Amino acid sequence: MSFQVFGLPVSRGVAIGRAVLVASSRVDVAHYFIDVGRIEEEVGRLRVARDAVAMELSLLKRDLPTEAPAELSALLDVHLMLLHDESLTGATKQWIHDRHYNAEWALSAQLEVLARQFDEMEDDYLRERKADLEQVVERLLRALARDPETPLAAVAATGARDFAGEDPLVLVANDIAPADMLQFKGSVFTGFITDVGGRTSHTAIVARSMDIPAVVGTREASRIIRQDDWLIIDGDNGIVIVNPSPIVLEEYRFRQRQAGLERERLSRLRHTPAVTLDGEKVELLANIELPGDAAGALEAGAVGVGLFRSEFLFMNRNGELPDEEEQFEAYRAAVETMQGLPVTIRTVDIGADKPLERMSVNELRHEHALNPALGLRAIRWSLSEPGMFRQQLRAILRASAFGKVRLLIPMIAHLNEVHATLEAIARAKQQLDEAGKPYVDVEVGAMIEVPAAALMLPAFLRYFDFVSIGTNDLIQYTLAIDRADESVAHLYDSWHPAVLSLISTTIEQARRAGKHVSVCGEMAGDPAFTEVLLGFGLRSFSMHPAQIASIKQRVLRADVRKCVARAEAALEADEPQQLAMSEAGVPSA
User: Fold this and answer.
1) 169-173 and 14-22 beta bridge pairing
2) Are residue 486 and residue 532 in the same domain, yes or no?
3) Each residue's pLDDT tens digit, 479-508
4) Phi then psi for 161, rounded to 5 degrees?
5) DSSP letter at 370?
6) CA 287 vs CA 403, 453, 542: distances in Å
7) Domain boundary among 103, 130, 156
8) Which sequence positions are flagged as catalytic?
């Protein structure tokens, strides 16, 4: 039966493929593909885990006290029966063989299939056995987690699978953690669907960076979509079509072909300088997550990296964080790839939606904070871990000996944070001098993503060489909206007059002080804002490489004098978005 699910459109385009469900579990589950040579080894891991759980259950049954109710022994028998049932372990092996899932993922996938079957049973007693099934699967997952042979190195190997002839795949989940998104980046998925999240949630940002369609905030997709359902993701309108009819499928395949032709046409602008019709030069930079992304930035025509999100180097490491040497090699690789073009490295922005597996005492307190977005994150976290912070600063400074590096500090809000940060940089330089390691005096910039920073900008500009506006958090904190919460996502408004006023004022004050200013948030890669930002005086945009071509097309067609008039009108309007839609010829709802 065909039906539709509605959510928020966060990454444009059309994706068609079979559903791959990542089930929510009380046990954290790693999701990665294994190569064909390791299938039997992975099946062996599953077998060892099953035998270990069977032993646990048998011992529990043997050691039951004589006065224990008979129901307990019967319950353990049910769990043993489920454990050896072919519909669980046999079908799980099939996921490993057919889809090349790791054992944990295969178990989760089969649990999803069986849980739905239990839900549809009419008999109350049988329906309640779903809880027993979940308990058995969680025992298996814990046994796999204890396996010393767990191939953690394979987590990073998430590139294209080594088998052909498969249907395209679409990932469906309640939510996707940043660490999992990092694993899935560059993998086989052609689109993402999540129950939760907003336009600037991490799933949305990474989906855009991968240039694949995504719909988030659907609320119920992972509960009503089944494994292997055929799906269409309409990333332009926020619609998911489940098991579409042949006519609808062909219509969307035609749209896919048209979008491919448009991308090919835009790619011809790759090496065209970004200059407006009236001769204003505009700098189009790239946002990257990992050193390997730098090559894609160059290929897309970026004239530098405006934001290297260094926190991704710290994720998915099973609690072991990168040391100075590993960080240095990563930063150097990105700098050398950019061939002399500037690379702006942001110090680690850990916290809120990007936690670390390894927890310090401070972080353990933070983990239980009522609102982590307002807690120990970004520069606050770095200053609370001075040894780790200086380690990162030394690695970044050392990379500056191999190309043009700029250092960016996230979420700065207080002058005492400014002073503490500059002292940490001075101390890191002193340590490098004492060790005889070369570096260059890099420019240091502040991210303007807290309203307090925008209002304090004249004072901050006395200490910083440049500023970069992080619009995602600036909007979140200005409007008091959790940008990852789909229940308030409709209130997350990039066109809000207060947001536009803060951005305009920040750009104007930085330019007046002779300081370089850029926008590195999602607004920079949204064509709807290009003319307004140009009108505010912005000449440096940083975005995901996939967005550069469409923004360059808008720049090439722009006349700054007209952009200034449009920007002034937007600042004066009570509802700037409606004004923008009317100017673009879009009818209001």
Assistant:
1) parallel
2) yes
3) 998 876 767 877 889 999 999 999 999 999
4) -70, 160
5) S
6) 18, 22, 6
7) 156
8) 202, 520
